[in-house]
C-alpha cells in the first residue's frame, strides 16, 4: 500500500470575532503588502470588508483590494490579480469569502510566481513549484478550500472547469467566524451541506482498503452533518449548527477523512459535476446532488457491503443481511436526505433538458477528450460516464 | 467562549517503509547537520538506527548520535544534547523512538536556542520563544508527542516531572511505520492503549460546553481503540491493529479531539500521574490507569450525563435514563477494560504501599506547593487531590 500522507499546516482559529485575529496572523507571516480578494457584496453590506481593511491598515500593513469573484471563479479575474500582485510587489494574499474566493487566491498565488499564463497549471501544461502565502477570513462553510490542497478555476472561454492540487497552496491561516454564515441564503446553505458531505463521501467509496479509524471518523463527520444541516436551514442563526458545519467543512476536505485509504478518493461525481457547472454554471453542491444517487446506483454492485455499512453508520439504517437490499436502502436514504434539503436529485430538476449532443459533449470533456478515465470505486470510461449523465438527466 | 485553535503543521507519513522518507523530508528542511536522538536498544538490535544513519550520511547530511533516553526522560541528558548541538552547530534534531525520545528532543530544541538552563522552561521560570526544527521516526505509538505541542521532562534531582507546552516545538515531520511497533512488549502496548485513550478522555470530561462534532470524533477514536487495543495485545504483528493505534496516537494528542470545547482539557489525572511516576518511575500509561477510575468516581456527580453519554458512545452501553446509574456503569466498564489489558486500576497494583507522608508529598507536589489547583470537570485543591490519591491507594 502507498504511504499515507497528512499535511495540514493551516492555523485554524474558530469562534465569534475570530476575524479580529487577522492582524496578529499577518504579522506572524511578516506580511507588508496584502491583496484582499473577495467576491460578494455581502461582506461590503455587513461592514466586514471595511472593518478588516481598517484593522490591517492601522497596523501599518498596506492593503490592495480586488473584488468580483463569482461562483466557479474565472481565470480572467485571476489574471487581473496576478497583474496587480506583480505590479505592486504584494507579498501576501488574504481571501475574505468562501471556496470560490480562496480558490481564486490560490490561482493568483501560483500565477504570481510564474512567468507563463496561470491557466497552464489548470490545463496540465505545467506543474506549480511554488505559491504565495495565503490566509483567509471564511464567511461561508462549504468547499473546505481553507485547509485543502486543491483549487478549481473556470476558463471563461469554453466553460472548462479544471482543478490543480498541490501542497504549496495550503493556507497559512484560516479564521472561521460562524456568525458570518448566518446570512447565507437557504439554497446556498443546502448546497454547502451537500458539498461538505461529498468531500468525505468521495473519499469513502473507493476500490481497495480503508483504515478503520478513518471510516469511523468519516461516518462521525457525516452523522454530524445529517444532524446539523437541516437545523441550519430552518434556523439560520443557530450558532451551534453553524459552528459544527463550519469546522466539518474544513475537516472534510483537508485529507483527514481519507487518511490511510488505498486511494485518494473516487472523485468521479466531482469531475462530472465540474463539466455540468462549467456548461450551465449551476451551484457546485446542487450539481453534486443531481448526480450522486444516479452514480451510486450505477456503481454499487462493485461492493454493496460498503454502501450497506454507509447506510448503517451514517443514517442508522438497520442491516437486513441482504447487502444488495441494504445498499439500495442506503442510496435511497441519502437521496431522500438531499431532497429534503431542497437539492436537485436529477439534472432536470435544474430545469435543464440535456440534448444528446450535450450528453456527448459532457462525457467527452469529462475524459479530457479521451485522455483519462474517472473514478476508483468503479473505473468510468467515456461510455459509462455518458450512461450516468443520461440516467441522471 | 474562547476562540478555538487547531494547529498541526507536522507532515505525517504512515506506512510500511515510511522511515525511508527521512532524507527527502530532511532535504525539504534544508538540514545539514542532524542530531539523531534515541533511547532503547531495540532500534540498534533491529538495525533501524544503522540504516537511518547510513541513509542520511549517504545523502551528504552529517549526523551526530545521542542515545540513552529513558522513560520519563531526564533533564541531565537533555543538557548533554544542548551542549552537543551548540558545540557542533547542529541545525536539525531527529528523534527515533516514542514519546520520551521526542520530548527529550523538544527540550533540547528549546535549550539550544536559550542562554540559560533548559529546566527554566519546565519550572516555569521562563517561557520559550523559539525551538529548533525537529522531525521523528516513530517506533512506538502512545504519547502522541509527534503531533502535540507538549513535552514532559523529569528533573533527576527531586523527581519533579514537569511539562512545557508551546507551538514552537511542533514537529516538521513524523514518519510512522506500524511494523516497528510489532516488537513492543505486551505491557508497553497496554500502557500505550491507555495513554492514547486518556489524551482524548482528558479533553472529553471538562466543565462547560463541547462541540458536538468533536464529541463525535472523540468517541469514534475511543471506539477504535477499544476494538484494536486488545487485538494488538493478543496478536502483536497484526498490521491493521498497529496502524489504527498508531494514527490514533497522533490524532488523540494533536488538539483535534478537544477542538471547540470550552476548556483545553481536564488533565488532573495526567498531572496526578506525573507526580506518581516522578516519585516511583512507573510507566505513564499504567499510572493513568491506576488513577482514572478513582478520579471518575470522585468527580462524576458534577455531570453524570456526560459519563452516561461516554459509556453509551464508547462501549455501546444501553442508557437506562438513570444518569447516576449509567455514569457508574460507564466508569465500571472503562475500569474493567483497562484491567482486561493487564493494567493496574489501583496504585497498590504496582506493589506500592503509599505511606501517609507520601500521600501528603504527592498532593503537595501536584499543586506546585499550593500554587495551583488541578482539573476542569471538578476543580481539585490540595485536599481533594489527596483524597483521590488516598482512595486510589
TrEMBL record, chains A, B:
GO CC annotations, alphabetized: cytosol
Pfam families, per the entry: ADH_Fe_C, Fe-ADH
Keywords noted in UniProt: Oxidoreductase
Gene3D superfamilies: 3.40.50.1970, Dehydroquinate synthase-like - alpha domain
Start and end residues of each Fe-containing alcohol dehydrogenase-like C-terminal domain: 189-390
GO MF terms, alphabetically ordered: alcohol dehydrogenase (NADP+) activity; butanol dehydrogenase (NAD+) activity; metal ion binding; methylglyoxal reductase (NADPH) (acetol producing) activity
InterPro entries: ADH_Fe/GldA, ADH_Fe_C, ADH_Fe_CS, BDH-like
Alcohol dehydrogenase iron-type/glycerol dehydrogenase GldA domain sequence ranges: 9-178
CDD domains linked to this entry: BDH
Superkingdom per UniProt: Bacteria
Family under the similarity heading: Belongs to the iron-containing alcohol dehydrogenase family.
Protein name: Iron-containing alcohol dehydrogenase
Organism: Bullifex porci
Amino acid at each position: 500500500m502507498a504511504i499515507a500522507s497528512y499535511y495540514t499546516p493551516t492555523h485554524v482559529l474558530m469562534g465569534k470575532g475570530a476575524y479580529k485575529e487577522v492582524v496578529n496572523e499577518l504579522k506572524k507571516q511578516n506580511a507588508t503588502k496584502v491583496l484582499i480578494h473577495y467576491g460578494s457584496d455581502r461582506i461590503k453590506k455587513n461592514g466586514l470588508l471595511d472593518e478588516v481593511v481598517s484593522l490591517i491598515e492601522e497596523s501599518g500593513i498596506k492593503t490592495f483590494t480586488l473584488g468580483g469573484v463569482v461562483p466557479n471563479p474565472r481565470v480572467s479575474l485571476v489574471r487581473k490579480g496576478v497583474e496587480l500582485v506583480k505590479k505592486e510587489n504584494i507579498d501576501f494574499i488574504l481571501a475574505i469569502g468562501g471556496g470560490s474566493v480562496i480558490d481564486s487566491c490560490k490561482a493568483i498565488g501560483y500565477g504570481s510566481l510564474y512567468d507563463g499564463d496561470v491557466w497552464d497549471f489548470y490545463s496540465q501544461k505545467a506543474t506549480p513549484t511554488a505559491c504565495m502565502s495565503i490566509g483567509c477570513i471564511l464567511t461561508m462553510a462549504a468547499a473546505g478550500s481553507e485547509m485543502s490542497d486543491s483549487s478549481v478555476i473556470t476558463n471563461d472561454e469554453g466553460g472548462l472547469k479544471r482543478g490543480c492540487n498541490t501542497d504549496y497552496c495550503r493556507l497559512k491561516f484560516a479564521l472561521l467566524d460562524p456568525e458570518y454564515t448566518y446570512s447565507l441564503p437557504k439554497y446556498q446553505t443546502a448546497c454547502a451541506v451537500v458539498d461538505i458531505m461529498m468531500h468525505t463521501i468521495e473519499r469513502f467509496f473507493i476500490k481497495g482498503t480503508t483504515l478503520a479509524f478513518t471510516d469511523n471518523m468519516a461516518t462521525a463527520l457525516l452523522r454530524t452533518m445529517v444532524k446539523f444541516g437541516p437545523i441550519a436551514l430552518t434556523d439560520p442563526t443557530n450558532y451551534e449548527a453553524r459552528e459544527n458545519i463550519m469546522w466539518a467543512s474544513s475537516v472534510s476536505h483537508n485529507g483527514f477523512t481519507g487518511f490511510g485509504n488505498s486511494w485518494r478518493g473516487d472523485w468521479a461525481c466531482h469531475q462530472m459535476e465540474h463539466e455540468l457547472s462549467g456548461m450551465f454554471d449551476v451551484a457546485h453542491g446542487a450539481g453534486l446532488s443531481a448526480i450522486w444517487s444516479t452514480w451510486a446506483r450505477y456503481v454499487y454492485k462493485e461492493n454493496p457491503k460498503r454502501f450497506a455499512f454507509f447506510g448503517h453508520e451514517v443514517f442508522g439504517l438497520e442491516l437486513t443481511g441482504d447487502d444488495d437490499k441494504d445498499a439500495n436502502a442506503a442510496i435511497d436514504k441519502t437521496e431522500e436526505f438531499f431532497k429534503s434539503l431542497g437539492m436537485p436529485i436529477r439534472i432536470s430538476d435544474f430545469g435543464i433538458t440535456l440534448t444528446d449532443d450535450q450528453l456527448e459533449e459532457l462525457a467527452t470533456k469529462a475524459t479530457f477528450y479521451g485522455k483519462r478515465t474517472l473514478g476508483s470505486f468503479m473505473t468510468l470510461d467515456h461510455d459509462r460516464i455518458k450512461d450516468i449523465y443520461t440516467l441522471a438527466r
